[in-house]
Amino acid sequence: MDTRMSISNRRRARGAASSSLIFSGLIVIVIIAAGWFLVYRPHMEATEGSSPAQTVVKKQAAAKTTPPPANVSAMSTDELLSEAGKAVREERLLSPQGNNAFEFYLKVLERQPDNQVAKEALRETFPFGANAAEQDINNRNFDEAQREIDLLAKADPDNYTLTILRSKLDAQRKTATKEQQQAQADLLAKQQASQRQQQAAEAARKQQEEAAAQAAADKAAPEQPKQQTAQAEKPAQSQPQQTAQPRIQDAVLVSSVNPRYPSTALRRRQEGWVDVQFTVDDSGNVTDATVVDAQPKHVFDRAAVTAVERWKYRPALNNGKPFPVTMRRRLNFTLGGAQ
Q1: Minimal CA–CA distance to 101: which of 140, 62, 146?
Q2: Quick check: helix, strand or coil at residue 94?
Q3: Region Disordered: start and end of each range (predicted)?
Q4: What is the DSSP string of 136-204?
Q5: Whole-angstrom Cα distance, residue 145 to residue 134?
Q6: At what angle do helices 160-220 and 142-155 cross, to 10 degrees?
Q7: What are the strands of the beta sheet with 286-295, ordered from one edge?
């Protein structure tokens, strides 16, 4: 009798233990199923709903207007995964900063390094994120592209796609820099060409004015000796020697020195001219050299005056006697040589 009761008691104990195990197993299954339906399934639907072409081609207008969560650090893991799924649906994979799917998933992995939902999501969305970063490189949003590449590197630092993206970003940056430098060089060349044209036009105008003044002087020159002759004819009977017409000869340059091109102007590739007025004394030496006009101002003045002061003339003659005269000359400074 005791034996039968002992066997019966053991059977009831085993039955109770089996029921407890079955109940515990059912609870675990229910929790896993709930997690799948509440977290993983929405994320998978979000990721499957966006094709790679849509992710790359569509503009992220919604991403720019979607405000970030108020306090990301205070959010739970489920809330972070929910925000990440929402960001994927709205194609906010890598941007805007602080409100994108990658940053939410990475925040989950900071808390739970083995979270399979976040790991799988980053793995599946990595190619689309790489395409978005490449699009920013092509659009020359270099700073944004660099931030996105750094974010991709946190998700998968050994992915070879990162090497390709970094190389392309570096090449595009160098190309943009060269284009900018070329544009600046073209603008400078255009400005210099315009300046040379203005200087040439100004020089031509000055030459025309000088030619007109010289023509007027040449026309007036014969009249002056006639007036002097008429005045001399009055006492001609008593002083016949004064009736002779005076012979005036201009000063003639016999030795010149080319001006030295200023080093500052040479470095800046500047050109110009200087009008110098000076006196040739009765010995043929140059004195009182001064600048009366120049273009540009105060760039070639000193070089021009220094050169003119070293010139040597055959002095002007009046009836064979030397006398001082005032002269004016223009010195041109071009990159081909000063003269």
Answers
A1: 62
A2: coil
A3: 49-73, 175-253
A4: HHHTT-HHHHHHHHHHHHHH-TT-HHHHHHHHHHHHHHHHHHHHHHHHHHHHHHHHHHHHHHHHHHHHH
A5: 7
A6: 170
A7: 286-295, 272-280, 325-334, 337-338
Q: From CA 238, how far away is CA 147, in angstroms rounded?
A: 108
Query: How many whole angstroms separate alpha carbon 199 and alpha carbon 192?
Result: 10
Who contacts 338 (Cβ-Cβ below 8 Å, separation ≥6)?
Answer: 258, 259, 260, 261, 300, 303, 307, 331, 332
CA angle 149, 154, 158 (to 5 degrees): 85
Q: Looking at residue 30, what is its pLDDT? A: 42
Tell me how far apart the 2 most distant CA atoms of the chain are, in Å.
190
The domain tally of the chain equals: 2
Is residue 46 within 8 A of residue 89, CB to CB? The reply is: yes
| Token output for 22 | 């079955």
Low-confidence ranges of the chain (pLDDT < 50): 1, 3, 7, 16-18, 21, 25, 28-40, 42-57, 59, 236, 240
Q: What share of the chain is helix, strand, coil (3-state, %, to 5)?
A: 60, 15, 25
Tokens at 128, concatenated = 């689309």
Give residue 218's pLDDT.
81
- DSSP β-bridge partners for residue 290: 277
Reference 121, options 143, 94, 88, 144; nearest CA is: 88
Which token pair is 153? Answer: 């590197």
Q: Which of 158, 175, 192 is the last residue of a domain?
A: 175
End-to-end CA gap in the chain = 139
Cis geometry, peptide bond prior to residue 96 (ω within 30 degrees of 0): yes
Q: Of 153, 175, 197, which one is at a domain's C-terminal end?
A: 175
Which domain range does residue 164 map to?
47-175
Q: Which among 236, 326, 258, 232 has a CA at the least distance from the CA of 288?
A: 326
Q: Are 166 and 252 members of one domain?
A: no
Is 42 within the bounds of a domain?
Answer: no
User: How far apart are the C-alpha atoms of 295 and 333, rounded to whole Å?
Assistant: 10
Note the pLDDT tens digit of each residue in 142-187: 999 999 999 999 989 999 999 999 999 999 999 999 998 999 989 9
Integer Cα distance of 48 and 124 in angstroms: 10
